[in-house]
Structure formats: structure tokens, C-alpha cells
Specification:
The chain is about 35% helix and about 15% strand. It is α/β, with parallel strands linked by helices and about 210 residues long. It has 2 domains: about 160 residues, Ribosomal Protein L4, Chain: A (3-Layer(aba) Sandwich), CATH 3.40.1370; about 40 residues, no CATH class.
Amino acid sequence: MKVEVLNIQGEKTGRSIELPDDIFGIEPNEHSVYLSVKQYLANQRQGTHKSKERGEVAGSTKKIKRQKGTGTARFGDIKNPIFRGGGRIFGPRPRSYNLKLNKKTKRLARKSALSGKMAEGKLFVIEDFSFDSPKTKEYINILNNFNAVDNRSLLVTSDYEKEVYLSSRNLKKSDVVRATDLNTYQILLANALILSEGSVEEIIKSLN
């Protein structure tokens, strides 16, 4: 399919770019998207949670009272889990939440997410551009041209553009990412997905 290439003012340049149907025009596979998002969010977890169990709580191991004849339940030491300050039963332990996912499934998820944005009319292709120095106001002006200031936006560049990245860093709803680092979760989160011409080539390379 052919898509108009826009400039940073949001105007047509008179040029178009060919987007492969097998990447930007497939029927989205919702299950692969679910698995990819699940993996991404799980891998963000540190897994450093820890609570002390009975054997790790500081305290005496002396038996609190005699076994029989008190008329109440028998107790061992003060670290008993039913006491305030005692150990926790089956508490959380440090662990890794990382999930593994097949490369083909991850590729299919990204293709599905891109195709979904294309079908919704939320995907734009613009000319490559750069800044001489970080300029947040200029970056906001670009987003304004695509009605993306108040909504979540994602700009995908072919390579790391330091000045562009720094210009967007102070905006809560705006992200800039390299094409090679693009993931399904970021695509789904964006209300406006803006691809530079150079990034389109990188995306096609990585997904073929």
C-alpha cells in the first residue's frame, strides 16, 4: 500500500512510500499481541520482594509456656506466624518474572500492532528531520501539526537522534524510540504513531 509522506508541518510533500501489506496490512492476531504485552510488562518487574519467614525473624526460641494445663492452645516460640511480629507464612521471595517468547510470535505481534494503527488512521510517515540543539517548543509544534500534543505520541527514528530525544524527554505523553527498539506495547499505547522515512526501512528489515 502507498502512504503519503508528510513534512514536519503535517503537509503533503507530493511523495509517497510503499508499505508492505504483510507488515502494515495484515489481520491483527490478538493472542500474539496479548502474549507480547504480557512478556514486556512481566520483564519490567524487578522481583526483589522479600518477607521474613519464621526461621529468619529475630527473637528467642524459648517455649512461651508449658505445653499442657493452661486451658489455651499450645504455643512454641515467639516467632510463631500467628503472633504480631512473627514470621510470615509462605511470604514472597526474590524471583525472576521474565518470560520467553518465540521470535516469530513477537514479530507477528508487532506486525499486528502496526496494522491496527494503520487501519485506525493513527499512523503517519514523515520526512527525516533533526535538531541542532534540544528544542522542546519546536517538538511541541511538530506534535501540534498531527494533533498529538494532548494524546500519547510515539516518534520512531531510524537511529538515535539525541537532540530530538532530549526535546521530547520533558513531555509526559511523548516518546521517541529507535526502530530497532520498537516493541508492541509502545505501539499499542500511542494514539499517534509517527514514523520517519528512514525508520520504515529499518522496521521492514527487522520484521522480514
